[in-house]
Amino acid sequence: MTDLRPRLPSPLQEVADDRFARHGVRLLLKRDDLIHPELIGNKWRKLVPNLEAAAGRTILTFGGAYSNHLRATAAAGRLLGLPTVGVVRGDELAGRPLNPSLARCAADGMRLHFVDRSAYRRKTEPEVVRALSAATGAEDAYVVPEGGSNALAARGCRALGEELRGHGEVVAVACGTGGTLAGLAAGLGPGQRALGIPVLKGGFLGEAIRALQEEAFPGRSGDWWLDERFHFGGYARVTPELDAFAEDFERRHGLPVERLYVAKLLYGLVVLAGEGAFPPGTTVTAVVTGRPFP
C-alpha cells in the first residue's frame, strides 16, 4: 500500500500554555494529524488493517453526514483503486445538495446510500447488513463498522500507545466509537493512564470500549477512564463557546484545531487542569487525531 505510506512515529510537540503551567502541568501534543495527508491520525491507524483484510474487495461502511471516517475511507478507496460504499444516516438527506464532507466522499468515488435513522440504528444486525449490501450492489463487500472501530482497528491503535510509552502520565484522546482509546490504552506502559473525552452524549461508550478490548485483546487492557462532560450537545455540535476556545488556542499556538473532536479534547483538558485533576508535575499528552478539512 505505497499510496498509504505513513509518517511514523508521529511527532510530539510541547506547547507552553499558562492554563496548564500555572497548575504545574506540562502539555504535549501527539501530532497524529501529520501521519498522512488524507488518512489523518487515528483514521490511518484504524483503516489500514481493515484495508489489508479487505484484500481488494469493495469497502462498505457507515457514518453520519459529517463523518471523518467516511471521508478517510473514500480517500483510501481513491488512492488504492478500491470501490467504496458509504451508508449515510438520514434518508432526509437524499436528493438534497451534498454538504462539503459528503461532496468530497462522492468526488473520491464513494457511492452514497442514505437510510432512515431507524434502519441505521440496526446497522450491526446481519440481515440489515445483507440487505444494504444487496441494495448497493456490493454483495461481496468487506464491511467496516461505523467509525472504523473493530478488533483490527483496536489492534492498529495499540501502536499509538506503544509510541507514547514514557511520554506522559496521562494520555488523552477524543472518542467517537472508542476504537482508538481501546487500542491506545492497551499499548501504554506501566504507570500511564488513558483518558477518553467522548464527543457524543449517551453514556454508552465505556461498554463499547470494553467489548472492543475483549475482542481484540485478552480482556480489559490498560488503565483508562472517560470524562463525558465535554460533548457540547453531541456529535457535530459546535457551540459559540467551543468555537471561541478553538480560535483562541489557534492564536496562542499556531495550530489549526479541528472542531468536532480535537477542540472538545483540548477544552476538556483545560477544564480538568483548572479543577486540579492532574497533580503538579504531571505531563499530559493530548492526541491530535485530526485537522480541519478544507
Structure description:
This protein is globular. By secondary structure, the protein is of the alpha/beta class. 39% of the residues lie in helices and 16% in strands. The protein folds into two domains: 6-37 and 149-287, Rossmann fold (3-Layer(aba) Sandwich); 58-140, Rossmann fold, CATH 3.40.50. Strands 1-2-10-7-8-9 form a six-stranded mixed beta sheet, with helices on both faces. The chain has a four-stranded parallel beta sheet with strand order 5-4-3-6, with helices on both faces. α3 (68-80) packs parallel to α4 (100-107).
Please tell me the total number of domains.
2
Radius of gyration: 19 Å
Mean pLDDT: 94
Distance between the termini: 25 Å
Shape: globular
Helix content: 25-40%
Low-confidence stretches: none
Secondary-structure element string: EHEHEHEHEHHEHEHEHEHHE
Question: In summary, what is this structure?
Answer:
The protein is of the alpha/beta class and 294 residues long. The chain is built from eleven helices and ten strands.
Give me the secondary-structure topology.
Elements: E1 12-15, H1 18-21, E2 26-30, H2 42-54, E3 59-63, H3 68-80, E4 84-89, H4 100-107, E5 111-115, H5 117-121, H6 126-135, E6 142-143, H7 151-163, E7 170-175, H8 179-187, E8 193-198, H9 205-216, E9 224-226, H10 240-253, H11 262-274, E10 283-287
Parallel strand pairs: 2-10, 3-4, 3-6, 4-5, 7-8, 7-10, 8-9
Antiparallel strand pairs: 1-2
Helix pairs in contact: 2-7, 3-4, 7-8, 7-9, 8-9, 10-11
